[in-house]
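Troubleshooting: if your tokenizer reports a length mismatch, compare your output against this known-good record of 192 residues.
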Amino acid sequence: MKRYGVSLAAIRRFSVSVMAFLPLWSYAQGETIDDVLQHVPMATTLALRTCGVKSQSDSWAEFLASTGASYVLAAGVAYSLKHSAHEWRPDDSDQKSFPSGHATFAFAGATALRHEYGHLSPWVTVGGYGLATLVAADRVRRDRHYVHDVCAGAAIGWLSTELTYYIKKKYIKSDHVDVAFTGQSLSLTLCW
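Known-good structure output:
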């Protein structure tokens, strides 16, 4: 069994440097930092697979079906609620506060990262969920969302990805998934 360790001093240095860096970055970049960071966990999952790191999915088709379906399901639920709840944002800019789409995508990506690469090291999971938590906290700090908005977004992202991977494990075999790219379109076929 592998053992992983990190010193308490290293954790403190990292957390202090992140907390000192985020406010400066966010003021300099406006809304762009969390717009980018919300997709980093899923982009990391894709980048690791592209670089040849062995994931839990047996094939590219199975990988794309799992990660893509989790993002589509999360987006569908979050944006359906966002357009029907009509909750005002804390800064009164619009009525699309509930739930947080940024938290939804960040936690959907972090959960996919855990499913695909959590077996490599527990720090992969910690990094994914840590970044997702920072995205959610930054949305509250900027007065774009209330705490319950980001909690609901995190729950939607996590649950939609867990549901997707459960369905994949229970009903879909890896030899029943096919992906085709023609240069102009991407086709995904699932059989069970």
